[in-house]
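My current task is to audit a protein record that another person submitted. Please read both lines and tell me whether the tokens look consistent with the sequence. Do not assume that whoever made the record got everything right. I have pasted the whole thing underneath without changing anything:

===
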Amino acid sequence: MIGVIHLPPLPGSPRGGNVERAVDSALRDAAALEEGGVDGVIVENLGDAPYAGTDVPKATVAAMTRVVSEVVSSVEVPVGVNVLRSDGVAAVDICAATGAEFVRVNAYVEALATDQGLLNPVARDVIAERRMLGLEGDVAILADVRVKHASPLDDRPLEEVVADAVERGLADAVIVTGSRTGSPADPEDVRRASSVVERILVGSGVTPENVGGFLKSGAVGFIVGTWFKRGGDVSSPVDPSRVRELVETVRGFGRAKSDHGG
């Protein structure tokens, strides 16, 4: 269970931003997520919309490095980085500077049509950067397939894209999402993806009501942002009671499976 730390606008974004405000917000949500029992957190520059594509401003990278460093120092769980829209190289660089342990990359082995324009896949660049920095084995890559807020420019079956992400893109795990932030993934998509690769995470729209269906479809992990927020409002702070509810729901399914010899 990975909780998302959504940052307010940062320096370098069209709306401007303040680093100290971002640090305060991130530390507050990191503490709430850890208190609620997550297994990890991921820092994401959600407030920077409209986003750059695969080459974000240097000011964004600098600001996120400061924020991620503070989060890494404040929690005991692993910390990840997602640089929107799809700057996986910058995410790896931030890990190198801060000790963060994984990245999420939106356009990994697919060309996508998005509101940022056309995004080209960055798997080769991300793998090369990780190797150049000596982070193989230290930084895991979580790759989206058929990611939200995007349309693929090919008609390959989902199973082929999932296989390519791991076999050719060398991703460590694959993420399946719904169509938009907060929209649930299709359990059938999760089932199809997990038929190819065991390491499937659901990356949007997870709630206590639908998490059991995702587990039955083969998901082994979840990246949760919106539902963990107060009132389920993505712009609100993290609510530890909502975190605990979802975490306990997932653990309950695990205990039931164990009791039945699964």
DSSP finds eight helices and eleven strands in the chain. The helical segments are 19-36, 58-74, 88-98, 123-132, 158-167, 187-194, 211-216, 240-259. The longest strand covers residues 140-145. Residues 2-253 form a domain with the TIM Barrel fold (CATH 3.20.20.70).
